[in-house]
Design brief:
Layout: E1 2-3, H1 8-22, E2 52-65, E3 68-71, E4 76-82, E5 91-94, E6 106-108, H2 124-134, E7 142-147, E8 155-156, H3 158-163, E9 169-178, E10 187-188, E11 195-199, E12 219-223, E13 228-238, E14 246-247, H4 254-265, E15 274-285, H5 286-294
Antiparallel strand pairs: 1-12, 2-3, 2-4, 2-15, 4-5, 5-8, 6-7, 7-9, 8-9, 9-10, 9-11, 10-14, 12-13, 13-15
Length: about 300
């Protein structure tokens, strides 16, 4: 069953009411989740502050940091639970029980460490040689998106997500650049100076030279007799964020390497960066997840 995206907010309320109505039928034996509820295995639904469970799978998109563009080829998962909304419509996020709020997936940086990206008209053989020499395990470069703050610093607005207007997800992140030469501590962003994404399914209002871009709420579908709401082809976007300079690159010679990395990245102030995340988002009430668990010993 599919529904117009702007009715999704009402649908979430209906799901919660349904779960409340059926809660009294729950058993008490030790149990396990079944069917589509399995994805909420690590939702902290027994925490009384948690009202909803989230499992969001980023299946594509891209991140533009200064002059570098990284395509999100490997999936990234954001999962956990969140509270009822505050006066501003934002809910506090809660860490999943397995402690992995945001999964780490190494994404290939085109051109590798040398930053050599073939022009569109470059012969195929030359492209292959560049890839061989500059995108291997020694000279290749990967970037990994990581959570920069505790899960409790994440904020989500299911109303803004459904309506396609306003900030839907506030996500503090950092980007881990990895290569044998750079060492293990090369980051753009940190716990003290995070990259703060304010993602929307609506239209952005960025600083110049960036132009406004629009996200998508996606297609709405109900699963498990209406107790799980799923958004497919949802796009969360933000192109008005800034990023600090790289730090910790090159180990003991980071004072030499950091400036080189920053020169390759170019300008990373607001208006020069973009995040586009294509997602499949599943949500359910904590009560519905708890009920499914108790009904399946």
């Amino acid at each position: 069953m599919r529904m117009h995206p702007r009715t999704a907010g009402v649908a979430w309320v209906a799901i919660l009411l349904t779960a409340l109505a059926t809660l009294g039928l729950a058993g008490s034996a030790s149990a396990k989740l079944t069917g589509e509820f399995k994805k909420f295995e690590f939702c902290p639904y027994t925490n009384t502050e948690v009202k909803r469970c989230l499992y969001s799978l980023t299946t594509g998109g891209k991140v533009i940091l200064g002059s570098k563009t990284v395509t999100l080829e490997k999936q990234v998962t954001l999962k956990g639970g969140y509270s009822k909304p505050d006066a501003e419509g934002f809910s506090k996020f809660f860490e999943p029980t397995d402690k992995i709020t945001l999964t780490k997936a190494q994404q290939n940086v085109p051109g590798g460490l040398a930053g050599i990206v073939p022009e569109s008209g470059t012969p195929a053989l030359v492209k292959a040689l560049i890839k061989f020499f500059f995108e291997n395990k020694i000279t290749g470069l990967t970037s990994t998106l990581e959570l920069a703050k505790p899960a409790s610093d994440i904020r989500i607005s299911e109303l803004h997500l459904a309506e396609g207007a306003g900030i839907a997800l506030k996500l503090p992140v950092k980007i881990h650049l990895e290569n044998p030469f750079l060492g293990k501590s090369c980051y753009v962003g940190s716990s003290t100076t995070p990259i703060n994404w304010e993602l929307t399914t609506g239209t952005t209002n960025p600083a110049k030279p960036n132009e406004p871009i629009s996200g998508k709420t996606g297609e709405v579908e109900f699963l498990e007799e209406g107790l799980i709401l799923e958004l497919t082809n949802s796009e969360l976007v933000d192109n008005n964020w800034s990023a600090p300079g790289a730090s910790g690159c090159g180990g003991i010679i980071s004072f030499l390497v950091n400036p080189i990395i920053n020169s390759q990245l170019g300008t990373t102030t607001a208006g020069h960066n973009t995040a586009i995340l294509v997602n499949k988002i599943d949500e359910s009430s904590a009560l519905a997840v708890k009920l499914n668990n108790e009904e399946n010993p």
